[in-house]
Prior knowledge:
binds iron/sulfur cluster, 22% strand, two-stranded antiparallel ribbon, 110 residues, alpha+beta, Alpha-Beta Plaits, 4 strands
Amino acid sequence: MTSTDDLKKRREKEALRIRTFLNRQRSVQHSSLKGGENTVAFVEERLCIGCDQCDIVCDDNAIELYKVPMLSPLMNVESNRKAKIIRDACTGCRLCVLACPTDAISMIDR
Ligand code: SF4
Ligand code: SF4
């Protein structure tokens, strides 16, 4: 009979396999990202959760967070935050794209 310990080990092994697979997929996706001075980052507001990760990694002060009203009246907070790219300051380095947990940022032509 399978013991709880066996199940736990199998679960950890499976979690590691999935994480490795997702990381590999992500690195393939990122290696095909365009970047450089002729590109600029773009935030899709709908996907942004205001987590601030992009702002933390951006060395060029090219990202600002602004407040928007919450969509759901069930949440007892007045506002949510969204990221905005300051186009002139953006160098096209792509760091923010790599940092964003929700894939809200993409690189577009200038
Ligand atoms: S691409 Fe680089 S410079 Fe531009 S906003 Fe993202 S992190 Fe900042
Ligand atoms: S990292 Fe992504 S989700 Fe977080 S604030 Fe920046 S754009 Fe929004």
